[in-house]
Fold this protein.
Amino acid sequence: MEQNNDFMRMRPISKLLMSMSIPMMLSMLIQSLYNIVDSIYVSRLGTQALTAVSLAFPLQNIVLSVAVGVGVGITSAVSIHLGARRQEEANRAATIGMALTVLHCILFVVFGIFVTRPFLELFTNDTVTLEMACQYTYIVLCVSFGNLLQIAMEKIFQAVGAMKTTMVLLATGCVINIVLDPILIFGFAGIPPMGVAGAAIATVIGQIGAFFLYVVVYMKKRKAFPVTIHPTYLKMDWGIIKQIYSVGIPSTIMTALPSVLISALNGFLAAFSDVYVAVLGVYFKLQTFIYLPANGIVQGMRPVVGYNYGAGEYARVRKAVRHSLLYTAAIMLIGTVAALFIPGQIFALFDAEPTLLEAGVEALRIIGLGFLVSTIGVIHSGTFEALGMGRESLIISLLRQFAITIPLGFLLSRFWGPAGIWASFPISELCASIVAYILLKRTHNGDFSPYSFGKNRKREKITE
């Protein structure tokens, strides 16, 4: 088992990071394609349907937040224990992580039943939009066990470096979604059209299918798999539970912040027009096409950083962060160019009405100014997660998506209207990146800072 993971300590960082990140980038691109295709199909039902799905996004994102948050905690715990050669603790972290995820599945059924309608009623008075939003949200919340369990397994596979497997399985779930969307939304071969409810059903079927595929692959490879998931390791180990949640809770909050952000901004934008609410919903679909590939790099980086941190290879940690910054900056640059020069063509994909198209072009051009500068915040936040430092990661994300954007957006909207809200995005990214730089520079005497060249350069060459 040690030999299975030693490549994370021995292989050259540039090749290692690419081999870990490219499969995740491809799978994230496929997932972002699914999100966009889903919205394109829904948009064919009209602006009300698109607005309904946009209103459902905050609650849907809470499920994703908990799943990803706990999953990141599992990845951090498993990779650090494997790097330190603590096999028993690695097995226990994986098993306890899955048990905690089952508990979360039950809690979300209750959450979906009691929270959905009261929450959605806060943001629309249109009865048609409200009913469509409720139909969609009840399904994606109450049948969210596939999503939660799939992501937990995905993070365990990532923790041991099985990136190609996660790429294939995640892509398979997305393809199932894409194929079922038009069939269930519009009807086909005797299947009645279900509208937005059909989009939700296609989503949960894809998630459940992906989870079962993870189980099948794990069962076939369990003898050679670097960690073991088994009831034998299901013990009330508060140390490991704390280790998972110390990263998982901040990561959950970070992933949930867009839900809070969208809810607050929807309230501001609704005062101007429901068109701007739809624009914000479409933007958050579009931005996944940029940030999900960047997140693929972060996911490839986490096990590399965690494993080498556990093994005491700080120079390799530093170099992994540096390469991640460069790769992510390239992705963000592409996003910036697209947002500035072809925003109209992008929004046209959603069959946008003239008012939606005009408002969307302005929004995308302003918000896109923050893509490139957000590179530092995104990568440094992921670095702190890999090191088991959830608090620092949370601080960066709060600055990026909550503490500055909401109050600044409200203030600027008093003077510039919706454009003031869009302008709050790049300003927040700039402030968060400055703080991220300072935090990592001050952590562990700067040992993990990618900007430390001088005295550490010789050691970095040796460890590669």
